[in-house]
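Hi both,

Apologies for the delay on this - the queue was longer than expected. I finally got the zinc ion-bound model through. Below you'll find the protein sequence and the ligand SMILES exactly as submitted, and right after that the structure tokens for the full complex including the ligand.
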Amino acid sequence: MTDTTTLSTDPLARDWWAGIAQGRIGYEVCADCSTAQFYPRGHCTACGSTRVETRTAAGTGTIFSITVVHRPPSAALQPFAPYAIALVDLDEGVRLMAHADPALAIGARVRAMFVPFGDRTVPRFAAAA
Ligand SMILES: [Zn+2]
């Protein structure tokens, strides 16, 4: 399993990656105005409330955008190239960037899987069955 303690010094990000390592995509919902948001911030971007709770997404959504990375941002990721990165609109109403099957197209219905990538586990979306 990935050592999530080395991934970030930000507690919100560290908790999010710890969830990913356990197969959970976390997002926040405001207890005051019900706005759903991603990434985790610890406060509501709509009303400013600090009463936000972390929920686990079902892992299903729709491809908003997708591209193939041929030149990774670091030498450590070069062996994985080419790989696809997508913006996925989760059914809970938030959008996140994640790995994806490069054969997917905009509008495709998808489901999250969790796969090793470099030094961590990442969400990767594939066509929903
Ligand atoms: Zn709010």
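Main takeaway for now: The pocket of zinc ion is lined by residues 30, 32-33, 35, 44, 46-47, 49 (CB under 6 Å).

I'll put the files on the shared drive as well.

H.
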